[in-house]
């Protein structure tokens, strides 16, 4: 799916509420199917926790087939496809969830992360902006917006959104690391190191260069991890 189509898809889903799948009773599953779908969802989540992604995806697809209007089923499927590295399939599943409910914060949080990891940065900003509008204290949206803005070289916005995420979730070091790289690449090395030291105060493992590969799971790109490594090196001097 091309990035330039994403805003149109999202806006259409937001405005065309009269055509949502969930509003058509023909799509509703009966109680037996709903129960069976819930069992498949639980099994799929169990596989997901074990990182048995092929089994998890196959099971969650069965859940969606049985209960196609259950938004949790589609979000679980999309997120598991994301964890398995199937970003295109994940985006498709999550856009189907958007069509069911264009006001679901978990759906847009997940879709925004998929776009961020896939490199669709403007789409990630658009989706997370809507997620933040829906939930003003949505630290996930602000954090991922910061990473997207940083990669777009919009450093002032990256700093603003990272600060917001850090305020909303003060015990999480990730927004502070995002803040550090935004300051670093805006040539404010002192504030970058101060932000990074705040992250170290929360989690001393960030003093270990090898631990920084963990940031990939937190949405950081390889270049952003390299920038973090440079900040760590500077902080040791």
Descriptive overview:
The chain is mainly alpha-helical. The chain has two domains: 1-135, Tetratricopeptide repeat domain (Serine Threonine Protein Phosphatase 5, Tetratricopeptide repeat, Alpha Horseshoe), CATH 1.25.40.10; 142-237, Tetratricopeptide repeat domain (Serine Threonine Protein Phosphatase 5, Tetratricopeptide repeat, Alpha Horseshoe), CATH 1.25.40.10. 70% of the residues lie in helices and 0% in strands. It has helices at residues 6-15, 31-49, 53-66, 71-83, 87-100, 105-118, 121-134, 139-151, 155-168, 174-185, 189-202, 222-235. The longest helix is centred in the first third of the chain and has 19 residues, at 31-49. It is elongated.
Topology of helices and strands:
Blueprint: H1 6-15, H2 31-49, H3 53-66, H4 71-83, H5 87-100, H6 105-118, H7 121-134, H8 139-151, H9 155-168, H10 174-185, H11 189-202, H12 222-235
Helix pairs in contact: 2-3, 3-4, 4-5, 4-6, 5-6, 6-7, 6-8, 7-8, 8-9, 8-10, 9-10, 10-11, 10-12, 11-12
> Considering DSSP H and I runs of 4 or more, what fraction of the residues is helical?
55-70%
| Global structural class | mainly alpha
What is the level-2 CATH architecture name of the largest domain?
Alpha Horseshoe
Q: What's the level 1 CATH class of the largest domain?
A: Mainly Alpha
CATH topology of the largest domain: Serine Threonine Protein Phosphatase 5, Tetratricopeptide repeat
Mean pLDDT: 89
Count of beta strands: 0
> Helix count, per DSSP?
12
Note poorly predicted spans. 1-9, 13-26
- The coarse silhouette is elongated
Q: How large is the radius of gyration?
A: 19 Å
**Gap between N and C termini, in Å?**
46 Å
Taken in chain order, the helices and strands follow as HHHHHHHHHHHH
- Whole-number count of domains: 2
Relevant CATH superfamily of the largest domain: Tetratricopeptide repeat domain
Main sheet characteristics: none
**Strand portion:** under 5%
């Amino acid at each position: 799916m091309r990035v330039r189509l994403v805003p149109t898809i999202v806006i259409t889903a937001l405005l065309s509420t009269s055509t949502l799948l969930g509003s058509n009773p023909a799509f509703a599953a009966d109680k037996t199917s709903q129960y069976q779908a819930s069992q498949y969802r639980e099994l799929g989540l169990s596989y997901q926790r074990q990182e048995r992604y092929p089994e998890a995806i196959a099971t969650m697809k069965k859940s969606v087939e049985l209960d196609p209007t259950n938004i949790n089923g589609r979000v679980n499927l999309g997120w598991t496809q994301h964890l398995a590295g199937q970003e295109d399939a994940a985006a498709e599943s999550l856009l189907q969830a958007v069509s069911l409910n264009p006001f679901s914060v978990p759906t847009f949080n997940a879709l925004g992360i998929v776009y961020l990891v896939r490199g669709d940065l403007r789409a990630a900003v658009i989706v997370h902006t809507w997620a933040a509008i829906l939930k003003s204290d949505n630290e996930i949206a602000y954090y991922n917006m910061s990473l997207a803005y940083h990669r777009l070289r919009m450093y002032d916005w990256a700093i603003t959104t990272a600060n917001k995420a850090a305020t909303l979730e003060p015990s999480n070091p990730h927004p502070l690391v995002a803040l550090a790289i935004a300051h670093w690449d805006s040539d404010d090395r002192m504030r970058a190191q101060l932000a990074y030291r705040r992250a170290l105060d929360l989690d001393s493992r960030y003093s270990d260069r090898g631990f920084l590969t963990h940031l990939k799971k937190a949405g950081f790109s390889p270049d952003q991890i390299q920038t973090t490594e440079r900040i760590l090196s500077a902080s040791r001097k």
